[in-house]
Amino acid sequence: MADPHMHIKDIVIDCADPERLATFWGALLGRPIVARMGPYVWLERENGLGMGFQKSGEPKAGKNRVHFDLASADPPAEQRRVESLGGRRPAGYEEGGFLVMADPEGNEFCIIPEGPFELDDEGRAGYLDDPDLSL
Predict the structure, then answer these.
(1) Neighbours of 5 (CB within 10 A)
(2) For residue 132, is pLDDT > 70?
């Protein structure tokens, strides 16, 4: 009998410029662009998960309600790499305790350490205060 539960097959990001965002995310995640179909640009599927970028006429408005947490052994180095690819650290997250970044169209995501890290009672992470991970 087939598993009755659904699973996430694809993540699709609405955007103004699918080619630009696919290039950014492909470089960031090491996943090449493998298809262009209509308003979509698709990255190579990994571990069964597809990632696509869909042209949308509406600009992003406000804070993301869903975001990615990307794990790295060296979050500060990844911050510099994100910035070199056209991403940025958005204002307003400096005291949140997480390394929040944004892609070229402003979609937020976090860069977190590979290993465990502590959260305080308000949900703030302490890894940015680690002297070995100085930003």
Answers:
(1) 5
(2) no
> Which of 124, 93, 98, 122 has the alpha carbon at shortest distance from 110?
98
Mean pLDDT of the chain: 89
Helices vs. strands in the chain: H and E counts, helices first: 2, 7
Q: Could you give phi then psi for residue 119, rounded to 5 degrees?
A: -120, 140
d(CA 68, CA 102): 11
| DSSP bridge partners of 62 | none
> Can you give the pLDDT at residue 131?
56
DSSP for 29-51, written as a single string: HT--EEEEETTEEEEEEETTEEE
pLDDT in tens, 62-117: 888 889 999 999 998 999 999 999 999 998 876 667 899 999 999 999 999 998 88
**Domains of the chain (ranges, CATH numbers):** 1-57 (3.30.720.120), 66-135 (3.10.180.10)
